[in-house]
Amino acid sequence: MRFPISVKLLFLAFLISLLPAAALASSTHISIGDFLTPSGQPSPEFKAIIKQRLTAAGLSCANCTSEPPESRYTLSGLMVRDDKGTSYSALLTDNFHLEPEVFIKGKQIGGSSSEPAANKLADSTVQLISNQSVASIEVSGDSRLTPNAVMALAQILPGENATPQKIIAARIILENCGLFEKVRIYLTPGPEGRKVKISVQERDSIIPASIPGPGKAVLDNILGPADLPLPEFPVISEKKFPALCNATCGGYLAYRAESILTRLRHSEYRFNMDDVEELVAVASAIRNNISTYDASCLDMCIILMKLCSMLDLHTIRTISENLQKNVDQSENGPHSLEKNLERIEFLTQAYEATQEAQFILSSRIFHDRIHSPVVPWVLYSLGEQALKAEDITRAAPLLSGAIAISSLPVAPEMLLTTAKAQYSNLDIEAGGAASTQLKPLLANPDLNDDLRHQINSLPQRASLCETVLSINDQDNFDLQLEKGNALILLDRPDLAEPLFHRLNGINPDDARPFTGLARLAFQRTDSLLSVRPYLERAEHMKNKDRYFYELALAYKMERITAEALPTIRIDGRSSEEASATRFILPKTLEYAAGYERFNMPQAKLIKAGVNVLGEWLAYPAMSDAEAFENMFMQTMQLNGEMEGQPEIIAASLYFSTDATDRAEARELISRPMSVKAGLKPRFLQLNLLIREMALTPSVSVVKALEQAARSSFSDTPSREEAVALKADALAIAGLYTNSTSTMERAASLYTLAIDLNEGDQGRLLNNLARINLALGLREEADDLYDEALDNSPEVNEVVELGKIITSLAGKEREAALQEFAAAKNPSRLKDAARKLNGTSNSTTGPEETSFVEMEGIYLNEKREITTGYDNYSGLSIDFKYNSNAWLLPTLHP
Question: Which residues belong to the signal peptide in this entry (predicted)?
């Protein structure tokens, strides 16, 4: 039968269109390792038979020694041939880590050849990996969503091929949709196909009510056409990533992409240039396989989109700044300038390509499956990227669109981000609609502290939005400044910067526009160094406001505390750095004097600190203790002049630890403190009373401690800290007074604190064990000490000491305590062990703290003074002291 040429061309075009999908759906790759004999020698004949059989079954085979990177599976093991026959044991491993390892064992009785055994092993392998279709899906975990809803969100259905790209795409969707705290998805093989197992742990979520969306036309305009080709990524040398050159296996590319995502998702991991190059190489290889879109490419589109989202503007800026520093410092030899400039250009091209690719991929998914449950995540992800790029006019409609079209619950954080973006976009109606749905969460006592704080700040954003909308270009200069400052707090530098430049043109002698530009510089860079040029210009102008002095003082104090003092500690007070620091102090005092008009207590405190620092630098003979004693006297004087000021109260409490007059210090920390004193001074007081009980316990101090512990901390944003601190205080008070009711109350608080705290569980479990020991619950205490050890406690030795007391008796305990006292443990704990053993004597050195002072308590103190600045709360000075008390065990009958 003859066909017209037009039909032949149409058929040819159809075949060409299927090539990308065909490449991604190529046969399964398996690498065959050596099968070792008992002598350790490989058996090439056995391996050759297996390879031949697997190839005949349609699998693509290779040797492990020359393994192609795209090999999905590896088969290797042992074989034994003797007079009785041939036996083998093999391990089938999924190199993409989607399936558990499978152990295959078999035996051939008799025979002159091992071929039947090899064929049997090959057939077992084929049976395990040949059927890659989804036989069933099992959804488990705590989720209000039905299994069908989770399956729909993951884009997996029974009967589909369980390709690596499909499973990895499903994992990306479930991990990033905002609904789940933890997600686990993996495959188990079987003759009927793959069983997909999905385990989820749900996080708090909200079923959103009607929220105004931007409309499809607006989203279409933002996303752009769906039929555009994906952009070319910058070229990387083939030698750098040879495995990716001409890679066509979709499963392997998906696996490489997930490896990068897994590495980069940890916040402590520092994104570097090598990571960017690898990401771009993988993205480019994926792009070459899905440049023409069809339904079979959906999974790879999702993977590529997530991969591209990792290259946000903040990441690019950070890496570029580091490269620029290398250029300035000429660290890499004569070719460093050219090389680093090439890298910066590469970063720029990579960022532009990834941003363009994200919009094209999103448009494809949006127009192809507009009602898919994955679309809200796609839009929200784009909205987050736009926020990082400071493009609020794109971010706001994308975020509101994600919420508006979602048929599933949404995470509170997503709704919060959406509300803030709408206010920043000056859409007070949409912002209010999102804010209203968040308010009921405030009634939840277990709500995350940071989330609670941000929800409570939304009315302020609404007020700022109203301020901006109510002021126009014809209003007076001061109102225009108010509008500019409101725009800063709404994260609208695109509107604030031209406004401040215009105001500077209107009134060139006014310092406030330059101060506004300084605040914008800090907002963009999060570095106080960036404000210096603006402050230097504004310093000689009139109308310096609160913002100017806060920024100027924050900059000077960071220079002193973060740069100068660490160097002076090393080089000494006669060093050049010390001399340079002394020149900074007069200007700092000048700024503090100007700041008195806006914040008298903080300004006075800064002046006192600068004066003491100046004396300490000028007189090297002055000890640190004398300087701190001087600072204590200064703060006590300020306390008398300005009674009830939280920062001054906190400072005097903090420096009381260095007071030579201990009676005065004890009287200060024992004073009843009202809620008006502020949260930080009350926390400080509790910690210092615990310290005092550890050093010089007394009836008056324990009464003050118990009274402070029973006060309310309902105003705290950190419930876990308050509960743990109150538990410590009541535990120490209960042990000192031998009050069963007080100890039982402490035990109850410790149980709650353990549930609330993640990083401090070892200490809390230790202290709860000590209370149980005092209450006569020896077995419970022993179990708690075991649990504390499992949590890798910071002071492991305290827990070990407790474990000796609860788990051993008689001679065994005596020997263990002697061994503990002889080991390299802190001297205070060694003396505690001797006391428990009844052998305490004057073994401690003259400079060591005796156990009598630390009776029953080991302090792992942490203290620091920090200064900071942000555009919302301004200048801050924090006096932090954490007693970090560990309760030591004792012998109870």
Answer: 1-25
